[in-house]
């Protein structure tokens, strides 16, 4: 198989990876707090030593999958009226306690369990500024949450939600559709902006993703046609050689 075919196949592999990421974005377009992903490709240059080809043809450029990164642009705010639906304006993350440790999230859809513990949709406890689960009085039903996270019920102040920032968002590792793992220490946000009765929607723009998917499909089809044409050309050359040899 000639190098041109290998180069085309490397690009087809990259397009398959890009299609998978776009499909994942589209499937999470309505997921609260979801941040869309993007792929980063680069050319892997392979220099042909001792080549007698003309200048410009001495280097082969293969497509290399470098990384997948998230777009942390804020999503649209959606009003719900639920007192435990919370959105963050600006930077920061909620902290929740999972079975695998503390995780960060922008998905602010919470609820109160029978024992008063505030949890997310997966049952992970929401943490306060000291990193402890927030537990509300089980018999209290009215609550207000200030922009800095102070929770007040009919019996008084019940705690303060802890909001943190990651030192480098690019190092955050996704776990599922809305949890992020930080392998570095986080920093508390001194003046967060918490909006009660609202959630932050996904920042996926469906029209943009559909357009991107169509472009990926066209590029993949073009590369597939090229590979098929190369295979046909090589087979024809082999058939002619065999005929001459016979």
From TrEMBL:
Q: What is its main location?
A: other
Q: Which residues form the Flagellar basal-body/hook protein C-terminal domain?
A: 196-238
Ordered alphabetically, the record's keywords are: Bacterial flagellum, Cell projection, Cilium, Flagellum
4Fe-4S found in the keyword field = no
* GO CC annotation terms, alphabetical: bacterial-type flagellum basal body, rod
Q: Which domain of life is it from?
A: Bacteria
Classification via PROSITE patterns: FLAGELLA_BB_ROD
Location of this chain's protein in the cell: Bacterial flagellum basal body
Q: What protein family does this chain belong to?
A: Belongs to the flagella basal body rod proteins family.
Instruction: Give the protein's recorded name.
Output: Flagellar basal-body rod protein FlgF
């Amino acid at each position: 198989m000639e190098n041109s075919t290998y180069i085309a196949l490397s690009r087809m592999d990259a397009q398959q990876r890009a299609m998978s990421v776009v499909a994942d974005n589209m499937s999470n377009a309505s997921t609260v707090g979801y941040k869309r992903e993007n792929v980063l490709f680069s050319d892997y240059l392979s220099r042909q030593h001792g080549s007698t080809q003309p200048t410009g043809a001495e280097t082969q450029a293969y497509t290399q999958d470098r990384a997948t990164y998230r777009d942390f642009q804020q999503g649209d705010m959606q009003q719900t009226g639920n007192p435990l639906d919370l959105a963050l304006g600006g930077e920061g993350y909620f902290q929740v306690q999972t079975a695998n440790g503390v995780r960060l999230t922008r998905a602010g859809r919470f609820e109160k369990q029978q024992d008063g513990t505030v949890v997310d949709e997966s049952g992970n406890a929401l943490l306060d500024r000291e990193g402890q689960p927030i537990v509300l009085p089980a018999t209290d039903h009215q609550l207000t949450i200030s922009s800095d996270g102070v929770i007040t019920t009919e019996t008084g102040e019940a705690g303060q939600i802890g909001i943190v920032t990651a030192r480098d968002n690019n190092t955050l590792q996704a776990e599922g559709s809305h949890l992020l793992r930080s392998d570095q220490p986080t920093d508390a946000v001194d003046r967060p902006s918490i909006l009660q009765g609202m959630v932050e929607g996904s920042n996926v723009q469906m029209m943009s993703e559909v357009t991107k998917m169509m472009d990926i499909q066209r590029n993949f089809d073009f590369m597939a046609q090229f590979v098929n044409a190369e295979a046909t050309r090589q087979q024809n050359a082999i058939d002619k050689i065999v005929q001459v040899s016979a």
